[in-house]
Design brief:
The chain is an all-alpha fold. It has three helices and no strands.
Length: 67
């Protein structure tokens, strides 16, 4: 199971990409054969984040805080 930081990134990416819950779960099921992100292995979680980047998600830079 991915660590909490990785799971948080996955859910931030889902929200920022505007994926519905159904779309998100379809990606998990079709690409990784799981129903939730907690069912992913570490490598699969990394692959999912790469997929989200390919879909246009741009993770925030470290240490960046909007005031």
């Amino acid at each position: 199971m991915p660590d909490r930081k990785t799971l948080a990134k996955i859910h931030i990416a889902k929200r920022e990409l505007g994926l519905s819950d159904a779309e998100y779960r379809r990606i998990l099921h079709l690409c990784f054969g799981v129903l939730t992100s907690k069912g992913l292995r570490e490598e699969e979680a990394s692959d999912l984040l790469s997929l989200f980047r390919d879909m246009g998600w741009k993770p925030a830079k470290k240490g960046r805080k909007d005031a």
